[in-house]
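# step 3/5: fold
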Amino acid sequence: MTDSSPTTPSTDEFDLDPNEVRVLGVLIEKAFLTPDVYPLSVNAIVSGCNQLTGRDPVLALSEAEVQDAIEGLLARRLISRRDQAGARVAKYEHLVRLRHSLAPPEQAVLAVLMLRGPQTAGEIRQRSERMHAFSDIAAVEAALEHLAEKYPPMVTALPRAPGTKETRHAHLMSGTDALAACVTAASVAGAELPGTPRGRLGELEEELLRLRQELDELRSEFRQFRSSFE
């Protein structure tokens, strides 16, 4: 079994590639959502990475790509392999709580940013509800502030996009070099103003998508739960 004792980060920033970000985000998320089947096998991680709901962007990672990402995360000691008695396949769990002393609220915020890209505090509160129910926006902002003050920092506030009223936040698990792309994406997202007809339609489409995502996630979790008894 891989040693999971906490260590001090040796660099000034993280350098995960997109696949590693997705795998780590999935492991954090599923620790909340499917504790009965956690840690996860490679197949379960692949399924979580390639979900069509709750993911932005949607990916289609192969088992080999996920295994490569797992190896990279193991080398950074951000995840560990868990060998369970009687288990026929290897399973993996995240070590973010141990390595970086993150409470559940911070873990939930980090996971939703890694899985769904830059978001406002309000969006984070809504989308992380099944992992952690924040009492209000101030509680989300407190978690964001804690993550931003970590060493190395794990999230940052993005420059406000033209025409937008709220600040969006992004994870820094890929380092500052990846931040420019997040800024560009945030600017594009603000191009359609909520007050325009198209902006209102976009809001309704997003709400419909959110409801579909929640239903699909519930179905997926039920299938994983049922498979643990087969």
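# step 4/5: annotate
The first helix runs from residue 18 to 33.
# step 5/5: archive (pending)
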